[in-house]
Amino acid sequence: MTEDNVGAILKKLDDVYGVTKEGFYHDQPWQLLAAIMLSAQSTDKQVEEVLPDFCRRFQTAAQLADAPLEEIEASIRSIGLYKNKAKNLKKCCTQIVNEYGGEVPSEIEELLKLAGVGRKTATLFLADAYEIPGVTVDTHVFRISRRLGWAEGKNPVIVEQELQKVLPEEHWNRINFQLIYHGREVCTARKAKCEECILGDWCERRI
DNA sequence: ATCCCGAGGG
DNA sequence: CCCTCTGGAT
């Protein structure tokens, strides 16, 4: 377990990938939650393409909850897993209207009760919407933090707890997008490009 | 061809 | 625990 590499790596990530990420377009918090749900297994570009029209068509959670499933599907048709997402969005918005008075809850335990909202979506929403510090562990964060020697846990929940101990809290809300960029371009699941990695000096995997 | 910026369901 | 859902990137 190396923890002395943490400071140097975090600084490098800040330098190369920046400290802020532009969030998804939205007028209302529930639309941000919807955008994050849409982003699963899809690119930001795909999501941003449908988002303006989506937000215009469904201005409130109640409007989406009442819309025919076919209309919801049509509005997100170009995005991966669109049938699942349309079904989950309708159910999720129905829950928001019926059980939360039309407002997205800000407690993670409540968010996790919403259809289509898992831990990754919930923590990212809390960070983006309310700047609540949290470590969002998606597939990239999971893979890279293990390669760096920051975590050893066998599932995302354990890794999340390990990272909360290893990382200063002010980095929690930016480590996700930084490692996503890094994970897509360099530290890929297979055939990682260790020769061109900016973290090569400190990474346990390369040394 | 193969793998995903997940989550629900059997 | 493993399967499925989807288009797009590589």
Task: Outline the fold blueprint.
Blueprint: H1 6-17, H2 29-38, H3 44-57, H4 61-66, H5 69-75, H6 82-100, H7 108-111, H8 119-130, H9 139-147, H10 156-166, H11 172-185
Helix pairs in contact: 1-11, 2-6, 2-8, 5-6, 9-10, 9-11
The protein binds a DNA duplex (10 and 10 nucleotides) through residues 36-37, 39-47, 78-85, 87-88, 115-121, 124, 136, 138-141, 176-177, 180, 183-184, 188-190.
Protein name: Endonuclease III
EC number: 4.2.99.18
Pfam family, one: HhH-GPD
In short:
Helices cover 57% and strands 0% of the residues.
Characterization of the model:
With 207 residues, the protein is an all-alpha fold. It has eleven helices and no strands. It has helices spanning 6-17, 29-38, 44-57, 61-66, 69-75, 82-100, 108-111, 119-130, 139-147, 156-166, 172-185. It is elongated.
| CATH architecture label of the largest domain | Orthogonal Bundle
Provide the helix percentage. 55-70%
Tally the structural domains: 2
Tally of extended strands?
0
Question: What kind of oligomer do you see?
Answer: single chain
Keywords:
207 residues, mainly alpha, Endonuclease Iii, domain 2, Endonuclease III, domain 1, 2 domains, 57% helix, elongated, DNA-binding, DNA_glycosylase, metal-binding, glycosidase
